[in-house]
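Query structure, 369 tokens:
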């Protein structure tokens, strides 16, 4: 079976560097929040630009919750996001005690639709959390304009978009605060859980350093109720290796996406947009088509791991059903979830596999018509 994503291929592609990094940590005797984390934080921040701070945390969901807690948001504070995301975005908002609100998505970017944010703003709204879904940058300039008008914080959920850019500027640097997951399948993925917060303010960075470790100050007194959400040294050392290859790996993903897009351009499929002014991180390659269940079964029977990201929008999960404001007015999201289909996408996907996937999709359309 050709999987839709293959973290072990990434390990094998960078095996000797990763093995050395792992050995270095095991030999050091320092396993949590130490020199590898420090180095990773510096490298991650400078990968994104000047005068930024990065803080390693336990996972992406915690990163979201910590960003909101760092802004002193909590009970009664509304955060506008999308239902078209990993459940983790919404779980992180609720973990901080905040109230998620759903805006609809734009049919082209599949990210939050700026005009839908405007419709959802109330006196309780405190923040907007755009998700750069599948690696596609959200419309950050329009989102920041709306945030300015209503005096709202913006936190970018960059968990699927490490290294994506708009006009040469990396996502994660448009807002003052951003959250990343480094789960193994991500473009920058470890071999276990991990997350990062990127921010501009040193004061905010210090607050996160405290919150991620029991709310401690330097004397190890808990000065605020904190979390335990620390990045471990093994993950940091592995992420340092992966960070060096991120731009190349993303370019390989985009090259595969261009081949798919070219091969499918005359088929009745909605394709991901690859636009000249943006660098799409191409975390997932997701098409839309009418008979997606039939196409998915056909591909699977041919050993191609087509899948759904996601099978359900967040407001369709029983845990969230009918209780998140906005859920009953998401026409674009609802339609998207009837037609979405994910095809295999990872930097190490071989030429033969790409050709096989392309011809199998083309065959299905030929047989159908
Ligand atoms: C968009 C998005 N946000 C947040 C997360 C949370 O990440 P984690 O699984 O590391 O908690 C993920 C990961 O699945 C994600 O895809």
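Result returned for the query:
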């Amino acid at each position: 079976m050709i999987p839709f994503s293959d973290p072990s291929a990434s390990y094998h592609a960078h095996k000797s560097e990763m093995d050395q990094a792992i050995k270095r940590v095991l030999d050091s005797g320092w396993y949590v929040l130490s020199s590898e984390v420090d180095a990773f934080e510096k490298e991650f921040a400078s990968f994104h630009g000047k005068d930024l701070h990065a803080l390693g945390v336990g996972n992406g969901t915690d990163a979201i919750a910590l960003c909101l807690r760092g802004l002193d948001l909590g009970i009664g504070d509304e955060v506008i996001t999308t239902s078209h995301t990993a459940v983790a975005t919404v779980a992180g908002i609720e973990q901080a005690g905040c109230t998620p609100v759903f805006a609809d998505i734009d049919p082209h970017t599949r990210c939050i639709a700026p005009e839908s944010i405007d419709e959802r703003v109330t006196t309780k709204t405190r923040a907007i959390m755009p998700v750069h879904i599948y690696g596609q940058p959200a419309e950050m300039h329009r989102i920041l304009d709306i945030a300015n008008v209503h005096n709202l914080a913006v936190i970018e959920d960059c968990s699927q978009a490490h290294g994506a850019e708009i006009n040469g500027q990396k996502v994660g640097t448009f807002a003052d605060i951003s959250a990343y997951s480094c789960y193994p399948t991500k473009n920058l993925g470890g071999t276990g859980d991990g997350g990062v917060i990127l921010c501009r303010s040193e004061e905010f960075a210090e607050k996160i350093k405290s919150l991620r470790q029991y709310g401690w100050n330097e004397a190890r007194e808990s000065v605020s109720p904190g979390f335990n959400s620390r990045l471990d040294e093994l993950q940091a050392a592995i992420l340092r290796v992966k960070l060096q290859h991120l731009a190349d790996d993303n370019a390989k993903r985009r090259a595969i996406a261009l081949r798919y897009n070219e091969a499918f351009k005359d088929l009745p499929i909605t394709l991901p947009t690859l636009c000249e002014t943006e660098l799409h991180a191409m975390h997932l390659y997701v098409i839309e088509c009418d008979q997606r269940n039939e196409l998915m079964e056909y591909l699977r029977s041919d050993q191609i791991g087509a899948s759904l990201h996601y099978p359900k929008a967040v407001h369709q999960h029983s845990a969230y059903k009918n209780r998140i404001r906005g859920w009953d007015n998401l026409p674009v999201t609802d339609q998207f979830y009837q037609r979405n289909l994910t095809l295999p996408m990872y930097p190490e996907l071989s030429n033969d596999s790409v050709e096989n996937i392309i011809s199998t999709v083309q065959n299905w359309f030929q047989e159908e018509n």
